[in-house]
UniProtKB/TrEMBL annotation:
Active site: 57
Protein name: 1-aminocyclopropane-1-carboxylate deaminase/D-cysteine desulfhydrase
UniProt entry tagged with the keyword Protein biosynthesis: no
InterPro entries, sorted: ACCD_DCysDesulf (IPR027278), TrpB-like_PALP_sf (IPR036052)
GO molecular function: D-cysteine desulfhydrase activity
């Protein structure tokens, strides 16, 4: 059974409740929730998993761990692997390679890449969409909702988490009796709603709200204000992901949100590469 603590956190003289999913094992954060269905159940016919996404994806690393535990082959397609990363593997890329992942560079992206990977499915293969955007993710995220629902109601809290594909936010809202707030970190609001359309079966989730960020952030680009927020958060006592969480906390500050439970979704394995980039540019 998945379970993680809720800890108090003071940041910029405000009190927050933090759901510490970053402490989950053997997979941390939202990937522990998204892939719990496959971890918990047996699939005797499955021999390989195929997925796709960015070259430093948290999902890629977590899937490589899952496949290693299950004895499955793991094949991962990505649009671009910089020569610097090929020559000096690090972060999630290195972690996935160490777990036996076959990472393949392919000249496809967006829907073209997605449709190509989907075409590879056979009876011995699991296709895991980018970032764990699959309906099976509901299995573990529902457990997260059950862990926090009564706590949020008792303390009159809303739930906040930043979103990539928005899978965690979507299924949380589906199973919670409180409002879920999120911010799109990869694309805009329209992008996020399109991701949800893959999961929804046209079901409307009324307690799910997308908040606008302070400004438009281009995914993976370096921003001094986000780096500063990340360092302040770490100094306050908790290390967060460097890609999504700074945008999340900047959105909290921008909207002056109070009385929230923040879902710490992990992803710290990917901090090494982002931190090196920030240090080269700003330190």
């Amino acid at each position: 059974m998945l379970s993680s603590p809720i800890t108090p956190f003071i940041f910029k003289n405000n009190f927050y409740h933090i759901k510490r999913d970053d402490l989950l094992k053997p997979f941390e954060g939202n990937k522990a929730r998204k892939f719990y269905y496959f971890y918990k159940n047996e699939f005797p016919n499955i021999k390989r998993v195929i997925s796709f996404g960015s070259n430093q994806s948290n999902a890629m690393y977590s899937l490589s761990k899952l496949c290693k535990l299950k004895g499955w082959e793991f094949i991962y397609f990505t649009n671009h692997i910089p020569s610097l990363l090929k020559n000096n593997p690090h972060g999630n890329y290195l972690g996935a390679l160490k777990n036996g992942a076959k990472i393949i560079e392919i000249d496809l992206k967006g829907d073209e890449l997605r449709h190509y990977v989907l075409s590879l499915k056979d009876k011995n293969c699991l296709i895991i969409e980018e970032g764990g955007r699959i309906k099976e993710s509901e299995y573990g995220i529902k457990l997260l909702a059950q862990e926090i629902n009564d706590y949020c109601k008792k303390n009159d809290l809303k739930v906040f988490l930043p979103s990539g594909t928005g899978t965690t936010a979507y299924f949380l809202a589906k199973h919670l009796e409180v409002e879920v707030l999120t911010v799109a970190c990869v694309g805009n609001e329209e992008y996020l709603k399109r991701q949800w359309s893959y999961l929804s079966d046209n079901q409307e989730i009324k307690n799910l709200t997308i908040l606008p960020p302070r400004r438009k952030y281009h995914f993976g680009k370096l921003y001094k204000n986000l780096y500063d927020i990340w360092k302040e958060l770490k100094f306050a006592g908790i290390e967060f992901d460097l890609l999504y969480d700074p945008i999340g906390w900047d959105t909290i500050l921008f909207h002056d949100l109070k009385n929230i439970l923040y879902i710490h979704q992990g992803g710290l394995q990917g901090n090494f590469s982002m931190l090196k980039r920030y240090q080269r540019k700003y330190d």
